[in-house]
Design a protein that fits this description.
Strand 3 and strand 4 form a beta hairpin. The longest helix is centred in the middle third of the chain and has 16 residues. This protein is an alpha+beta fold. It contains three helices and four strands, in the order αββαββα. The chain has a domain of about 90 residues. Helices cover about 25% and strands about 5% of the residues. The mean pLDDT is about 85. The termini are far apart.
């Protein structure tokens, strides 16, 4: 029994991205808001971050979901879910990419999306508009 095999811990899971609003280590958060609640038992986000992810004018990144007219709720829910995944999930290690930025050292890149989720996102947002070509930069 002393030589029993202990499973190795996956170094790419149960860690937080090194970025502006992330905790240094995942852990229980108690109450996470709305669509971020699935991560409450082991989260990289705080309750306040989860609340801000749901606001039209969020303090997270000085971003407004309604930057080009009102974004319909059925469309907005996909973007909020994406924000919750990015801010709260402790299991994004396989997709962490190093960056040199003033507000983050890591980001996620090429995270797979289920075909059904992609098709539903398109269906729910195909009639919505954005006034921005690149959502990653140039917001004043």
């Amino acid at each position: 029994a002393a030589d029993a095999v202990v499973p190795l811990k996956d170094p790419l899971l149960n860690l937080c991205i090194d970025a502006k609003h992330h905790k240094s280590e995942p852990g229980p958060e108690g109450t996470l808001h709305g669509q971020c609640s699935p991560w409450k038992d082991n989260a990289c986000c705080t309750a306040n971050t989860s609340l801000e992810a749901h606001r039209d004018q969020s303090n997270l990144y000085s971003f407004n979901w309604n930057h080009c007219g009102v974004m319909p709720p059925k469309c907005k829910r996909h973007f909020i879910q994406d924000t919750c995944l990015y801010e709260c999930s402790p299991n994004l290690g396989p997709w962490i990419d190093q960056v040199d930025s003033s507000w983050r050292r890591e980001r996620i890149l090429h995270v797979p999306l289920c075909k059904e989720d992609c098709e539903e996102w398109w269906k729910d947002c195909k009639d919505s508009l954005t006034c921005k070509e690149n959502w990653h930069k140039g917001w004043n």
